[in-house]
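Notes from the 1:1 (GR / supervisor)

We went over the backlog. Supervisor wanted to see one worked example end to end before approving the batch request, so GR pasted a single chain during the call. The sequence is below; no edits were made to it. Supervisor asked that the structure be written out right there so they could see what the output format looks like.
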Amino acid sequence: MYAEKKERFKNLGIQLLIIVLSCFFGILAYIIYLDSQIYVYEKSAVGSKLLREAEVNINNNEINLENITKCVVGISKLEDNGTSIFLEKSTEKLGLGTGVIVGEDGYILTNEHVVGEKYSSCYVTLDTGIEYKGSVVWADSEIDLAIVKIGITGLDKINLGDSNNIKIGERVFAIGNPVGFEFQKTVTSGIISGINRTIKIKNDDDTYSYMESLIQTDATINEGNSGGPLVNEKGEIIGITSVKVNDAEGIRICDSNQCSKTNYRKI
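Structure output shown during the call:
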C-alpha cells in the first residue's frame, strides 16, 4: 500500500515538473517572439526614418533651374534698335544665339560660330533685358568655343562641373533661346546618350571639319540654342550646345553607308 502511494506521488511530481517546464518554455518562446517583433518594428522604423531623411536630402538638393536660367544670356551679332534682342523673329533678324555667364566680372562662354573670331564684337542681353556690347577675348574654331567679355560686374554665374566624370544615362538639362522671343530661356531635359563622339560636319564653303570629344544627349535643341549650357543634376555646366543632327529625332544607329547621308549642322 505504501509502495503504491509512493509511486503515485512520484508520477504526480513528474507530471507537475512537465507542466512547469512546458509553461517555462512557452513563456520563454513568447518573450523571444515579442523581442523579435520589437526588433522588426524598430528596424522598420529606422528604415522609414532613413528613407524620410533621404527624401528630405533629395528635395533639399533639387536643382533650381530658375536660378540657373538667370545665368543664361542672349547673344546677337547685330544691335537691336529696341530694348532687347528677345523680340519676335529675333533669330532671323539678329542671328540670335545663347551664352552662359561663367565669371561674375562679365565673362560669358558661348560658341565660336555664334560670336565669331577673337576681337569680334557682339551684343549680349542679360536676364534683366539690358543689352551690352561684348568683345570676343578668346575663340577657337576647332572646338567651337569662345569667351565674350562685357563691361559689368556682380553677375550671377553658373558653377563649372567636370565632364570627365559624366556617365551614360545621367540626367541633364539644356537651356537656350530657340527660335526667338516666344521661347527664350527654354529648358529641356534628357539623358547623356553617348560620350566621346566624333562627327564630320560640312561647312558653308563645302569643306569638311571634324568635332571630337562630344557629349551626345537626347534633350531637345533647336536653332538659337547654340552656346547654351548643358547642365547636370547638381546645377553645374558640363557642356555647351553646338551641333544638331538634322535628319534624326533623338539619335539613330546606322551603318557607314547611312551615316554618310547624315546631315550634321551647327545651330
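Supervisor's comment: The two ends are 116 Å apart (CA to CA).
Batch request approved.
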